[in-house]
Amino acid sequence: MPLIRSDDPRILHLPFVPKSANNNPSFHFCGLGLQSAEEEEEGLLYAFRSNSNLNMAVDSGSPVQIVMANDDHTFSLDEEALGALLLRPDVVHKKVVIVSVAGAFRKGKSFLLDFMLRYLRASDHLQPAEIHQGAWLGSDSQTLTGFHWRGGSDRDTTGILLWNEPFFRKLPNGDEVVVLVMDTQGAFDSQSTVKDCATVFALSTMISSVQVYNLSANIQEDDLQHLQLFTEYGRMALSSSAGKPFQKLLFLVRDWSFPYEAAYGLKGGESLLARRLEVSDKQHPELQQLRKHIRSCFEAIHCFLLPHPGLKVATNPQFDGRLSDIEPEFKARLVELMPFVLAPSKLVPKEINGRDLTAGELLEYFKAYIKIYQGDTLPEVKTMLEATAEANNLSAVNAAREFYMEQMEEICGGDQPYLNTQKLEHEHTIVQGKAVQKFQEIPKMGGKEFSVSYLQKLEEDIQAAFESFARHNESKNFFSSFRTPATLFLVIVVLYMVSGILDLVGLVRYGNFFALTMGLVIASVLTWGACRLTGTMREVGQFIDEIASFLWDYILGPLTQEAGHRMATAYPQQMATVAGATNAAKAAYAVNGRQHSTSSTKSR
């Protein structure tokens, strides 16, 4: 049997096990694998995997995509894949800890998560002292496996992935929890919209109990702005939750290059975080609000500074994660980072509204959350250009609308007398054209195509304002003010005349009906007057106005117009007849006069 090298990736470093452990069928120990007696005295024994049980302990599990990014920039949940993990009999009723890593694409998120997996696997069988010393890192030649990662500039992860190997831990208070590790699609790549990025970050933050915000080189203002946008997009979906919506946030600054300002690790990170999130009176209110918003979203916020892992990691396309290619300082900080995130005393069970969730309950929340982002209840997330262009166009709409309102106020405002309807419409057309021209002359971002919808909005606003001006102008018309009482008075006169005629012809019963109706109309007039005088019972007064308008528009008005038309037509005819008769009379008189004169002459 050949000797087994200590740096063989198949080898698992375990604490020294007595030789009686050879009775354990899970391991085959080989004395030939020992490098020296000194190593045995130090308590290290090399073992290799001999059956499936050990294989599960060393390299079990695989990444499972639970949220898929679709070509139409929507997201869908693989409920079957997620349920296969969360509904396992040994998982479903346990409290769950979800550790997620999110941030910009190609910044080493999956690379970091694989070290988390290595830590979680190794800490199952290492003593606290060994974990503290970094024994969980393994041998220098061991390759890094787990979530798929690679070098290069193109994105590698899409959607949201969950490692399907649960890690069981007991918290200091005795509660048993299951730890799950989540990888997310990188933000701001060339194939993702801002909404895509916001959705992935918001979903992972809503589901996770620990969100690691993976940053490069520093915590910059745009990093905080993106965090504000993404967390607000998640908080809108959790509008019913009380208190702070999210639990633990860790700013993980990669490739930190200023250790002379803030030392690597947690201590330096907390110092940097305090400076970046500091709120002072000298800051612009927008910057103050940004920092207050971030602190209001998370129950706990921390920061950790990691050095650069080395040029071999960054520039060698053949790099496979071997520790021998990674800078010692980076490895030392990994040894500090992992217990801070994953040690039992640091684990944070997922809770919602103050209650810890089990894995089975988390599945239902996941389903509910994905439906929110598949629907239309949340506003569209916009790029900075879109948001700025929208603000420019809305400002132009407001300026043009105010111009229209000012001009129309001078034409038919409250202090102006009644204006003929046709004249008012003519003035409206002129002022509307000037307002549209003013909108078009204001410099705006986004181009003409972007402004089309805002021009339509301006025209709709102007039309609504004109209708309001027209109603106000109509209220100044003398007849409009007394339209209701005049109409009802005319109805009373008609009813009185009909009732009298019916009484004269002996139809007293029908006459009484019209008289009773006339009394109701008189009561309506008195009620209308009381409503207008006291300002009470406005609904009753409005109802009487509507009845009067109906009677005038569809009965009395048409009858009055028809009568007027007939009178206007008949009057000229009558005048022509009278004129003809007069002329005929004059002619006859003249003839008679001449005849009388002739007769007188003859008689002489």
UniProtKB/TrEMBL annotation:
PANTHER family: GUANYLATE BINDING PROTEIN (PTHR10751). Keywords: Endoplasmic reticulum, GTP-binding, Hydrolase, Magnesium, Membrane, Nucleotide-binding, Transmembrane, Transmembrane helix. This is Atlastin. The chain crosses the membrane at residues 486-507, 513-531. One of its GO terms (molecular function) is GTPase activity. It is found in: Endoplasmic reticulum membrane. It holds the Pfam family GBP. Residues 93-346 form the GB1/RHD3-type G domain. The keyword Membrane applies. It catalyses: GTP + H2O = GDP + phosphate + H(+). It comes from Hypsibius exemplaris (Freshwater tardigrade). SUPFAM superfamilies: Interferon-induced guanylate-binding protein 1 (GBP1), C-terminal domain, P-loop containing nucleoside triphosphate hydrolases. CDD domains: GBP. Signal peptide: none annotated. One of its GO terms (cellular component) is endoplasmic reticulum membrane. InterPro entries: G_GB1_RHD3_dom, Guanylate-bd/ATL_C, Guanylate-bd_C_sf, Guanylate-bd_N, P-loop_NTPase. The keyword Aminoacyl-tRNA synthetase does not apply. Its main location: endoplasmic reticulum. It is a multi-pass membrane protein. Belongs to the TRAFAC class dynamin-like GTPase superfamily. GB1/RHD3 GTPase family.
